[in-house]
Amino acid sequence: MIIGIIGGSGLDDPKLLRDYVEKEVQTPYGKPSSKISCGKLEGVNVCILARHGKNHEISPSRINFRANIYALKILGCTHIIATSAVGSLKEEIKPGDLVFPDQFIDFTKFRKTTYFDQYGDVRHPAMPEPYSKELRKILIENCKDLGFEYHEKARMMVIEGPRFSTKAESFMFRNFADIIGMTGVPECSLANELDIPYASITMSTDYDCWKEGEESVTFEIVMQTMKENAEKVKKLLLTVIPKIGNKDEEFIKEKIRTIPDFPKPGVMFRDITTLLKDPKGMDKVIEILVKRYKSMKIDFVAGIESRGFIIGGILATKLGVGFIPIRKPGKLPFETVSEEYELEYGKDKVEVHKDAIKEGDRVLLIDDLIATGGTCIASANLIKQLGGEIVECGFVVELEDLGGRKKLEDKEYNVFSIVRYIESG
Fold first, then answer.
1. Most exposed of 88, 194, 341, 387 (fewest Cβ within 10 Å)?
2. Half-sphere exposure at residue 244, Cβ-oriented, CA atoms within 13 angstroms
3. What are the structural domains of the chain?
């Protein structure tokens, strides 16, 4: 999971961002607003883009929104959280409050608002709920826990800018919306067109120019209020990013049954049969694996007996490639090759058809669980023996402290797991 952050959130501070690099991304729509700061924040991969440029040098209508969103897509962002300043059109939304819009009204005039504008590529994307309900829920719950003043719903009027509204416009907009800003569209709609869940953290900085007794909005007022309250947005992001990053893992863990003292005293057995019978849990597992592997060059998926057959078989179908079973001895007809490996209680063996793989085939190796890694290493050895190349070794569950990952990585295999357990017995 990679989370794209749009806006001057202050998270690109090298003290916060680990393994930090700046990437310059080229897109079919031109250059994005800035180099994109990529790294790990609280263990989660993030990509941070400055919407107005690193020095706030790009005015709202000159932002290349299509390049910005497409660049985050190229970098593999699975979710986007945008931050921005807005004006309040309602008395109860006070300067300094955080607002989580759920609808927008597009009042812009000159922007490129879609990727579907090429001749012969006519599409009419549906967008009744443009903001991700799931992301909004996480943001709202954590904002509440942090004790910040917030508003969980708002219609946002998006105007062209760079000028602020006249009083006549401001009073008109109050009839239709709760907040007003200059950057929410087409940013949100473009993310929807690319199937990237998108949510926005907006900070109310002023009352636009409709409220009697309040100074009409200026750029200086906006920047001063943002400066005074930016720590709220930063703190909220630092709180929610690990939760968004781990939400799929936690969801899948809920579907896995733990059985203590099996197969021997002191072992905590992770039983995925409960996951296999849960359609939503399995859908999420396959969704994660397909997203990871759909852009990789893969000729075959090889599944290890027996649960690896189920997961690998479904994945191979979704990826549109063939499936190869790797089995325990004596279960495959025709000519086979085999590999013996050590277990703590003796020896075991796996085998595969001799004609299953030819020289140069790229094989994705899949199993339900990695513990000590013996079965997977033996299976990988079989694939290499037949001339195949291991793209990656993928698992649903990893028992981290049993060391299987390290053994595979020491042999220079790439390893991926969806959920990890630290304690294993």
1. 387
2. 34
3. 2-247 (3.40.50.1580), 259-421 (3.40.50.2020)
